[in-house]
Design goal:
With 180 residues, the protein is mostly beta strands. The protein contains no helices and 14 strands. Strands 3, 6, 7, 8, 9, 10, 11 and 12 form an eight-stranded antiparallel sheet that branches. The protein has a two-stranded antiparallel ribbon with strand order 1-2. Strands 4-5 form a two-stranded antiparallel ribbon.
Length: 180
């Protein structure tokens, strides 16, 4: 996922006793999400998807060929995103994400579901929802909206995955369930 990462690796031996430490810094500039199509990028029924004409459709009513408002966070540009396919998946976990904007997002509590996030340290990246923290911010068309609460629950339900040509907006938040 895009962002700057640092890790320290420590190696040691007992004979002779030696310890060596190295710190590695990596900057990831692009990330191709493969969330859509079964097991990730899943959205709960009723999630509103922003269509290219400005209207919204519930995720369960979106179909292949539909035109969505797409956004490329690498270039900061909007364009049309075409739905390639939709799938349903059965999940056993749910995250309910609340932000200052007031719009709630219900998604699969999976590492494969990622959202365009600004962390409290200022890093912007596609962050798995399972790593999202209160105080992080999610990208909306109006700018960043701070996460105020995250509720997790175990529940069996059907969710929807959308595979499209660009990330699109789900309940106002940028969802990257796309494949080029």
């Amino acid at each position: 996922m895009p962002g700057s990462y640092t890790t320290t690796i420590v190696g040691s031996s007992t004979s002779p006793v030696r310890t060596h430490q190295v710190t590695i810094s990596v900057t990831v500039v692009t990330y191709a999400s493969s969330c859509g199509g079964g097991g990730g990028g899943s959205l709960a029924a009723g999630t509103l998807i922003l269509m290219a004409d400005g209207s919204t459709h519930a995720v369960q009513n979106v179909k292949a060929g539909d035109r969505l408002v797409g956004y490329n966070p690498n270039t900061g540009s909007y364009s049309v995103s075409i739905v390639k396919s939709t799938d349903t998946v059965q999940v056993n976990s749910l995250l309910v994400i609340h932000t200052e904007s007031g719009s709630v997002l219900r998604t699969d509590a999976s590492r494969t579901e990622v959202l365009w996030t600004k962390q409290q340290n200022g890093n912007t990246l596609w962050l798995p929802v399972t790593m999202l923290r209160v105080g992080d911010s999610l990208f909306t068309q109006q700018g960043w909206s701070r996460v105020t609460e995250i509720d997790a629950t175990s529940v069996h339900q059907t969710m929807w995955d959308i595979t499209a040509t660009l990330p699109y907006f789900a309940n106002g938040y940028l969802d990257p369930a796309w494949r080029s």
